[in-house]
Amino acid sequence: MNGGLPRRAFVKVASAASLATLSPLTSVVAESKRLAPEALIDTNLTLSRWPFRRSPLDETNALVAKLREHGVTQAWAGTFDGLLHKDLASANARLATECRAHGSLLVPFGSVNPKLPDWEEEVRRCAEVHQMPGIRLHPNYHGCKLDDPAFARLLALAAGKKLIVQLAVIMEDERTQHPLGQVPPVDTAPLADLLKRTPGLRLQLLNAFRTLRGEPLLRLAAAGAHFEIATLEGVAGVANLAKQIPAERLCFGSHAPLFYFESAALKLKESELNAAQERAIRSGSALRLRG
Questions:
Q1: How far apart are CA 200 and CA 235, in angstroms?
Q2: Residue 268, SS3?
Q3: Residue 172: CB partners within 8 Å, gap ≥ 6?
Q4: Which tens digit of pLDDT belongs to each residue from 104-158?
Q5: How many whole angstroms separate alpha carbon 183 and alpha carbon 72?
Q6: Domain segments of the chain: what residues?
Q7: With contact defined as beta carbons under 8 Å apart, do 138 and 83 qualify?
Q8: What superfamily would CATH give domain 17-290?
Q9: Strand ranges of the sheet holding 74-79, from the earlier edge strand across to the other edge
Q10: How far is the C-alpha of 210 from the C-alpha of 201, rounded, in Å?
Q11: How many CB atoms lie under 10 A from the CB of residue 66?
């Protein structure tokens, strides 16, 4: 792909008014079924405010305007509150309410911390009360190693409830972290075996490509993990990655508002992808992940 290609027509997002009588999950499913091949699903978005600095688009209305400007038809949204807040029930309720206010564009992914008491109940609320299609985990911020038995139980519970599990490997480049907020990347070494031992688990890694590459990356892909492109670097990075991992395992992700949305969009444009690969990364892989 390159910048000289004709502009594509994008599917318009249904208005909130037309979906007001539907539940959040029903609205999202209905929207997914009618997404055209030109659809663009951003699987890595975060609402609320980053605790260490303001971002230009950390007001939801401004972020939504940016998404619509670029033809995004659906965006999977977590919350920055899920990193450091202990009251995740309130954080997830706010997230669900904020997403509903924008029709079917924003799809909420609640935060769960398996080191907090009664975390199993929070998984239930995400699935049954808020009707979220998935949860987003931040093990490095929650002090939970992936070989912790509680983490394995969390994956099994999510799989049993047919929830997508998004795991953020990093949130911020280590070179820009506040001195009092140094958080190392998640050690993903145990994940491939956990995937194999957890039937039905649908796992996507976010912000993985600063630290995950080579054999560990290929092992995770072979075990069934999905990925998104926000932290992928290098010329023709997406095309080169698609030579190692099937495009059906790759999703579009911007990591907005911490990253510029345009950065992710340009990664698709400057890579030589065939039509099937581009369609998979833009929306097809995400829709398959949704099942």
A1: 35
A2: helix
A3: 50, 52, 183, 258
A4: 999 999 999 999 999 999 999 999 999 999 999 999 999 999 999 999 999 999 9
A5: 31
A6: 17-290
A7: yes
A8: Metal-dependent hydrolases (3.20.20.140)
A9: 41-47, 74-79, 106-111, 134-137, 164-168, 202-206, 226-228, 250-251
A10: 24
A11: 18
